[in-house]
Amino acid sequence: MQGKRNIAFDWLGREDPEDGPLAKRFHHLIDPKGTHAILGFACDAGITRNKGRSGAGYAPEAIRKALKNLAVGETNRAIADLGDIPVVDDALEAGQTLLAITLDKELRSHKRILVLGGGHETAFGSFSGLRLHYPEKRIGIINLDAHLDLRAPGAAGASSGTPFYQMRESDPINFDYLCLGIAEESNTAALLQRARDWGVKTITDHELIANPNIADTAIQNLIGRNDIIYLTIDLDVMPHYQMPGVSAPAARGVSFSTIERLVDVCLSASAAAGKPMPVADIVELSPPFDKDGTSATTAAFLARKILLAD
Ligand SMILES: [Mn+2]
What we know:
Layout: E1 36-42, H1 45-49, H2 59-67, E2 79-86, H3 92-106, E3 112-116, H4 122-133, E4 139-144, H5 163-170, E5 177-182, H6 189-197, E6 201-204, H7 205-210, H8 216-225, E7 228-234, H9 256-272, E8 279-283, H10 294-308
Helix pairs in contact: 2-10, 3-4, 4-5, 8-9, 9-10
The structure holds manganese (II) ion.
């Protein structure tokens, strides 16, 4: 039922005692006292309402499984697992509210919380949690995505296609949104027009393919003019052959190496400017459509990077 936190994941993983104490893997870092934390949002309702292929509700568990045996270098960071918020059937709004309340509470004791979606409806819960916790701060939004996700909620209500529209609606004056990787085939003229009207800065997949550094200045500018940074990664920004396990695989897409670099730029620029990134999320993984677990592993590489960075 809604409201119950599922904390059942088994973090027992591979051990290599013959290699000594440096043979450390991600599962060794899991500790309730962690400054950085993972929180799952096991939700299919947003993608179902958006007429997509369901399966994202299985993503938090699949990403944890892909994470647990990754090598972690020599870090001593402790990472808490805050469990999952399960969203039953169509209870999307109640799930987003619970995600926001949970983030607000857990941000008292954690420096960064990485939310594992769910579809992109996860983002409205993540942003609402940040807003609850930091009512006066300017929040800069960076989205890596093939889609603007700026659609107006229709008859079915909010969905995985509407989170940034909802964020703007909740605070039109301070809305500061940078979207990297959009595909011209995946965003109607109505959405592109809305983005221009609302001062959204966009960089296309073509532009990033031609020049992987092209977004660096826009990222630094957004970080510079805000107090805190919210990073949201929609895995469908990557090409289908690297990211088959999503509702909407990309025919073109921005390569994993470029996405990984963009995440690095966001993390290092926010740290250098002293602008924290208290919440980030990784959304849209759909394990039923994955191939050999490679999509989950790709998501886990990004999760590891965000959780090990300062
Ligand atoms: Mn999206």
